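We treat protein structure as text, and this decision shapes the records that our systems exchange. This encoding replaces a full spatial description with a residue-level series of whole-number codes. Below, we set out a record of this kind in full and without editing:
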Amino acid sequence: MTQAHSKIDAIKLAMDAEQQAHTYYSQSAQKASNPKGKSMFSQLAAFELNHYNYLKSLLESLEEGNGWIAYSGTQFSGTAESPEAKNSSSEEQTKDDVLSILSKAIEDEKNASDTYAKLAEKTDDPAGKEMFKKLSEEERLHTKILNDQWYSLNNEGIWLWGD
């Protein structure tokens, strides 16, 4: 496989992972019975969708021979809710249900951060290296948010996220 193909294949794999993360967080927002949980999962879903859309634009640019495109990063915007979460009917979740959802999300975010860090190491292009580093840092931030939430719910029974 040529370097161009491996770069494109890596981006396609990253797109797939981001799409899966978006779906997982959207479904988690729909299931969440706590408004703060809905808000947190909705924000994470939007974050992952933004990653996917950026990677899709990057893939198109690379396939057209235009090279890497700049990635300025994604910021949390507060307590926005996705339309899916607002229109969902939630059933009451147990603490164990929520902790299980958070545990899976933590593991997935750690894996995503590690994958992006490895891609940054393997990428020769400075813009590509910087992009993968930013994506890795953002996934690491997600891990921290989810870890903080897990510990707060587990130890104190309190949602940290939202107003």
Q: What stands out?
A: The chain has a mean pLDDT of 84. The domain at 3-67+92-156 is CATH 1.20.1260.10 (Ferritin).
